[in-house]
């Protein structure tokens, strides 16, 4: 389907029935669906699982993830691991267990697992069964969030922020759940029309489309816009990077001040996304926090908070189905094709269900 063509616009001209009468052809909805997460596996990307502050040293917590359940364990050394939650002995939820050093003991029969998910001892003293092991996800704790890669090995690294001249001060927000797949939220960046009509942004559609740069794991884009009076700023420049199908970073220049936005989209269960958001700004030097940091973060929070309040009710209720797209949607079409071809897998399926 070509954006801007008659087929994509869904035109339905009347036709003759052979007697000279004009008959309207049957109505139909144009559909070009993107397979939902879970169909053919889940995206092989880094998913946020929880905030780092949610699990202290010597603690274990449980979380729903993909189409099953995982645990997040922090050993007494501080090391964090995300693993399948169900004990391979009889299926007890290991999130009810006890952390000893960097090991996890099942509450039911005291099977003991190391930080890589291997059973190293049984409570009764019997030899460890050959297949008594958990699925260990590649795990990183970065930017105050615990991440798990959906795969046996991570195929790319989480982003860092180039602020060697000054450390960043981070502000994190409670996770928010929407009834949609992560990529439907990220698709908003390529949906130029929504920026204008929903958020009131004034910008050059053509110039923004030309600024898109695609790569194997995503896309970068630049958006310069004047904001309406109801916004907390008058002008923005966003340098946006999307990675995988669920991770967004933004270097935002708002009325001349620079700040950073990180949004990670998890999947607590099919058809839902859990949104982890953090904003950051740089210190001015080694003498302490720049007194302008808090106002800069406040402004970034207000601008994106307003956008979220406008986007979220729509994303939470939409039946997302690409259909009668137009010429202006050409970057959106390309993004949806990117999602359709992005690698999916589910190596943990037998462990987390």
Q: What distinguishing features does this structure have?
A:
alpha+beta; Rieske Iron-sulfur Protein; Naphthalene 1,2-dioxygenase Alpha Subunit, Chain A, domain 1; 4-stranded antiparallel beta sheet; 7 helices; 18% helix; disordered N terminus
Notes on the protein architecture:
The chain is of the alpha+beta class. The chain has 2 domains: 108 residues, Rieske [2Fe-2S] iron-sulphur domain (Rieske Iron-sulfur Protein, 3-layer Sandwich), CATH 2.102.10; 177 residues, Naphthalene 1,2-dioxygenase Alpha Subunit, Chain A, domain 1, CATH 3.90.380. The protein contains 7 helices and 23 strands. The radius of gyration is 24 Å and the shape is globular. The two termini are 38 Å apart.
Provide the fold topology.
Layout: H1 6-9, E1 15-16, E2 22-23, E3 42-43, E4 46-51, E5 59-65, E6 68-74, E7 80-84, E8 98-100, E9 103-105, E10 112-113, E11 119-121, E12 136-137, E13 139-142, E14 145-149, E15 168-172, E16 176-178, H2 182-186, H3 192-197, H4 205-210, E17 213-215, E18 218-226, E19 235-243, E20 247-254, E21 257-266, E22 273-282, H5 293-317, H6 330-341, E23 344-345, H7 349-352
Antiparallel strand pairs: 1-2, 3-23, 4-14, 5-6, 6-7, 7-12, 8-9, 9-10, 10-11, 13-14, 15-22, 16-22, 17-18, 18-19, 19-20, 20-21, 21-22
């Amino acid at each position: 389907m070509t954006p801007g063509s008659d087929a994509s616009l869904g035109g339905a001209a009347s036709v003759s029935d052979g007697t000279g009468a004009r008959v309207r052809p049957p109505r139909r909805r144009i559909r070009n669906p993107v397979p939902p997460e879970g169909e053919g596996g889940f995206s092989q990307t880094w998913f946020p699982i929880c905030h780092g502050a949610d699990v202290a040293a010597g603690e274990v917590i449980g979380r729903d993830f993909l189409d099953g359940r995982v645990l997040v364990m922090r050993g007494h050394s501080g090391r964090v691991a995300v693993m399948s939650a169900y004990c391979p002995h009889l299926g007890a939820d290991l999130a009810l267990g006890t952390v000893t050093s960097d090991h996890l003991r099942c509450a039911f029969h005291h099977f003991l697992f190391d930080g890589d998910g291997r059973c190293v001892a049984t409570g009764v003293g019997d030899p460890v069964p050959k297949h008594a092991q958990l699925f260990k996800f590649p795990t990183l704790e970065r930017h105050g969030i615990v991440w798990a890669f959906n795969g046996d090995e991570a195929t790319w690294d989480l982003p860092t922020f180039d602020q060697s001249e000054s450390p960043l001060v981070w502000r994190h927000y409670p996770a928010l759940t929407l009834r949609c797949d992560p990529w439907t939220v990220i698709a908003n960046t390529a949906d130029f029309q929504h920026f204008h009509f929903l958020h009131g942004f004034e910008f050059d559609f053509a110039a923004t489309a030309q600024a898109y740069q695609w790569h194997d794991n995503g896309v970068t884009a630049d958006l310069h816009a004047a904001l309406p009076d109801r916004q907390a700023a008058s002008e923005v420049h966003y340098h946006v990077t999307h990675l995988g199908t669920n991770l967004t970073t933004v270097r935002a220049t708002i009325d001349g001040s620079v700040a950073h936005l990180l949004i990670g989209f998890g999947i607590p269960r099919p058809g839902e996304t859990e949104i982890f958001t953090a904003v950051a700004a740089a210190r001015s030097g080694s003498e302490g926090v720049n007194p302008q940091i808090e106002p800069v973060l406040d402004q970034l929070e207000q601008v994106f908070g307003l956008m979220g309040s406008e986007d979220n009710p729509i994303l939470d209720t939409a039946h997302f189905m690409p259909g009668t797209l137009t010429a202006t949607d050409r970057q959106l079409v390309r993004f949806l094709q990117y999602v359709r071809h992005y690698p999916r897998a589910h190596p943990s399926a037998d462990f987390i269900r």
